[in-house]
Amino acid sequence: MNWLKSTLASVAGTQEPIYGPEAFRSVARQTEETPYTELARDDLRWIAHQYTNVETQVFYVMGDDGTLAMAQIIYSNIAGIHTTAQFTSKIFNLAGDAPHNWHSDPLSNFMFDESMHSFGADNLAVQLSEDGESYSIKSAVNEDSLVNLTFKRTSPGFVVGKDGTSYYGTDAQNPWGSMSHAFWPRCAVEGTITTQEKTYDLTGRGMFIHALQGMKPHHAAARWNFINLQTPTYSAIMMEFTTPPSYGSTVVNVGCIVKDGEIIYAGSTNSAAHTETIQDQESDWPEPKQIKCVWEGKSKNGDEVRAELDAALGKRLDRIDVMAEVPGFIKTIAGSVAGTRPYIFQYAPQEKLTLKLKVGDTEVTEEGSMFSEATFIS
């Protein structure tokens, strides 16, 4: 049992002591002086820490024809001794009458370019352009998902605060963990994903996130909410996580309201609430059915900004058991020893949702499409 616990700690991890909220420094503290920082090309480098961490780049697409898709690189390091990389792609079946076209494939011979801006592997290249304005994603890793996409940002990219990072640890000068997110909230997308059945034209709108969890993921966060709302004029993005009790169950919420060429608001004074839930029998988590999101702060010129989304989530798009491929006995012990039971609930309501936005004395409402996730870990 002791051997199993130590092995499990390397992969899933055992429960941490209660350090308290004072062992966690939220990125929200940075926003008191610097609400957000616009991204330059050099801010988009891969970090590739040499200790336990998970680093991802995620590209979300909302096609003009209604197609919803995503592509993701997952680069992970376990205890500084084992590094893996995975490429995941997903085309959602919005009708719900067939499985999603989902693939997650291990990568071979993966590497970064010399400047750490681009990532490559056998049959895969994800490259940041020289001007720092666009990404190209090309993958033939899986013959049922041939990816050829270009993401060009149409609004500034940003991190909340100075560096977009929250820090974990009892010594503020030497944190033992971190969590960070960098966003391109509004992008123009061109290209295709080709499956064995058809070629999907993904011309449309997209968003991009570069995220780093610089510690065991379930030690960093117990729950997540993610909102990606795209309207013809605006993009409303929200990423919220709650730390485990080890760090005081602290809520961190970063988000923005942008339009082409302009960040209207970005900061950490936002909220997300599941206003209606049902108990999901398979996962034993409270599955959200209705969500209310509020973005609140000031624009660069000092105007008060408030945006609100109050929406029924509709039929669940997918429920992902993150540990589905973990052997059953390990999964059971992971849940009992570490309190870890990770599930992701995904939604994309078929009806248009309304964003209510007030900037200073000007009020507007606009309908758009949303993709959202609610993740329960521990």
TrEMBL record:
InterPro entries per UniProt: AttH-like_dom_sf, Ceramide-binding_SVF1, Svf1-like_C, Svf1-like_N
Keyword Endoplasmic reticulum among UniProt keywords: yes
One Pfam family here: Svf1
An annotated GO BP: lipid transport
The keyword DNA-binding is assigned to this record: no
Boundaries of every Svf1-like C-terminal domain copy: 215-378
Primary site of residence: cytoplasm
Keywords tagged on the record: Cytoplasm, Endoplasmic reticulum, Golgi apparatus, Lipid transport, Membrane, Nucleus, Transport
Compartment list: Cytoplasm; Endoplasmic reticulum membrane; Golgi apparatus, cis-Golgi network membrane; Nucleus
A GO cellular component entry from the record: endoplasmic reticulum membrane
Residue ranges annotated for the Svf1-like N-terminal domain, each copy included: 54-213
Membrane disposition: Peripheral membrane protein
PANTHER family: CERAMIDE-BINDING PROTEIN SVF1-RELATED (PTHR47107:SF1), SVF1-LIKE PROTEIN YDR222W-RELATED (PTHR47107)
Similarity comment text for this entry: Belongs to the SVF1 family.
Role according to the record: Ceramide-binding protein that may transfer ceramides from the endoplasmic reticulum membrane to the cis-Golgi network membrane, and is thereby required for the biosynthesis of complex sphingolipids.
Protein name as annotated: Ceramide-binding protein SVF1
Organism encoding this protein: Aspergillus heteromorphus CBS 117.55
